[in-house]
Amino acid sequence: MRVGFIGLGIQGGPMARRIAAAGFPTTLWARRPEALREFADTGAVFADSPAELAAASDLVCLCVVSDADVREVLTGPEGVLAGLRPGGIVAVHSTVHPRTCRELADDVARQGILLVDAPVTGGGPAAAAGHLTVLAGGAAPTLQSCRPVFDTYAAQVFHLGPVGSGQVAKILNNLLFTANLATADSALSLGRDLGLDPVRLAELLNNGSAASFALGRMVAAGGTLQSIATHAGGLLRKDVHLAADLANQVDAGDGVVFDAAVTTLATMDRLLER
Question: Which residues are designated catalytic?
Answer without folding.
Answer: 170
